[in-house]
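Q: Here's a chain of 304 amino acids. Please give me its 3D structure as tokens.
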Amino acid sequence: MLELHTNAPAHWPRVRLEGLIPSNAPEVQTANRLLFSTTIETVFRRSGIQVLEADVLRLTREGVLEIPLRVRDGELEYDLFFYPVADEKSAAHYVAVYELAQKWGRLRPIFYSTDDLLAIYPAEIEPVARRDRLYIQATLSAPRGQYAMWWAERPGELFHYSPTYDLFDRIYREINGLEMRAFALILLELGMIREEYEFTASSLTDTTVEIPVEGPEGVPLIITFSQHRGVRFHFHIERTSAEYRDLFLNLFLLRLKTWRKEAELAQLRRLDSPSYIWWRELGKRLRMTDTGEQAISAVGSIRR
């Protein structure tokens, strides 16, 4: 039976595995991860540490990070990473995860491996957070409640001075004149179309398209699209933190930048679209009318 090396808190129980195969082959990795998860759950249950979930997607400022296992010890939650092969590549992956956590928070990474990863000189460190998709899944219906693009967290909070406004503004600027193609990206990820050209202006009427989806970390939201207002995201107010809202919008912005670079659209000259003009005018109206005494409590509200 092999005892794993770790940088976990000293009071955590030791973890020993039987039947581990030291290999990075995909089919072996699946078996090793299952062995690790079941062993952790058994060992931790006896010590009072709660296993929360396995194979988790967590939003970060640099994209989405895949986490094998999340646990809770008292008031703190931890992200467990398992490396059956302790080599330079594994050390580099953990260093990248640790640096991501130190830079942006939201993560408390702990490693388990067949050797001490902190004693291994890492290979070249590469990004570990992905930004090539939104990790959304379409749902049959949206959970009941109120959804909004933004909502005030405290009295007197103003939308046009919030980080959320800045993110939406950058998104509208990024896809100005490319709204149809940007929405097609979302439809492609959801599997609603197979090719970008399948979604055109003739696909739409004057009505607004609404798609209920589940985002990373299981958060419900509604994506809407119209030629007048473009692509918008409406988050379930009671089940979404302001931090998550801004991280998801940032993920979409990162996705757009990657897409425009790959599609060689960065230098494309475009006229201002109807949706960008609407957004720009909305910003002007808010700056003129939205004051501390009569502040708007929510923007882009939808009730289900």
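Q: Can you summarize the key feature?
A: The longest helix spans residues 26-47.
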